[in-house]
Amino acid sequence: MRVLKSLNLRGWLLVGTAACGIVLAGAIATFGSPASAGASLEERKLPMKFGWVACEPNCRGWVSAVGIITADTPKDFDDFARGRQLGGATVVLDSSGGSVNDAITLGRRFRNLGLLTTVGVTQQNRGEKGARPRVASEAYCESMCVFLLLAGKKRYVPDAAHVRVHQIWMGDRADDAKAASYSAQDLMIVERDIGRLAKYTFDMGGAGDLLSLSLNVPPWEDLHELDASELKLTNLVTTDLVSDVLPHVDVTAPAMAELAPKTQARFGEEPEPQPAKSTKTAEALVPTGGVATPAAPPQK
Predict the structure, then answer these.
(1) Residue 38 in contact with residue 66, Cβ under 8 Å?
(2) Dihedral angle at the C-alpha atoms of 209, 212, 217, 223, nearest 10 degrees?
(3) Sign of the dihedral defined by the CA atoms of residues 155, 160, 161, 162, in that order
(4) Is residue 284 within 8 Å of residue 64, measured between CB atoms?
(5) pLDDT one digit per residue (tens) for the chain, 300 residues
(6) Where is the segment annotated Disordered (predicted)?
């Protein structure tokens, strides 16, 4: 929270942006090792960072995108993309969501570049001589990250990944959404941004079912995790082949631990059926409880 307080994040969030890290901060999960698991959780709570992962000579590489979408994220991506030949590259997402309007802006950048999208965590394997980076399939794409996933021209979601959706809500009042007060201006903003999100969803080739599933989950309930049938119903998944988005890449699933609800040996293999867990929603801004606050200005 202290880190995010300084970010000057405003406007709307699909709340739940920091849920995994806050609720499960003490849990142990392994993406190759307990240390890397802890790092992954912390990174998902911080502003989104982009990195190029090279895996030559047998594959092109990919973009790692980890963290929360903030007002700075579209510019950060533009800075990252400058001077790089990213057209048609793959973005590997691990994110707890973030700002609605900035996610829409970033998603349109992705589509303009013809990027492909998937969900995963990059493992560098620095300790092995000659070993190439890998993508661990046990990863999270929550709230507005789901709409970034939708921006890919081709979209693949591994069985072990967790794709979770939630309602739009005022970021500064999501901590106690039922007790907070709302003005007519607040209602106008949420209606406006739902319209923006709907247009974006259809522009990206998504189905209305994605909006319906998201907007039916209030901030005082757990995020809804999309199952395999819902991923196809919403058109979030366009291919069942990992090779369509990450050709010639060693893709693996991490060792099972307390945090991970599902496992699989590799992308494309069937996991053993287990009940999915949801993360409780949490606010990425400083909560105001039941005190009414002025609506934030629209974000460009």
Answers:
(1) no
(2) 20
(3) positive
(4) no
(5) 433 433 333 344 444 443 333 332 222 222 233 334 455 566 878 999 999 998 776 678 899 999 999 999 999 999 999 999 999 999 999 999 999 999 999 999 999 999 999 999 988 766 566 667 889 899 999 999 999 999 999 999 999 999 999 998 887 887 788 888 999 999 999 999 999 999 999 999 999 999 999 999 998 899 999 999 999 999 999 999 999 998 877 666 543 333 333 322 223 333 333 333 333 333 333 232 333 344 444 433
(6) 263-300
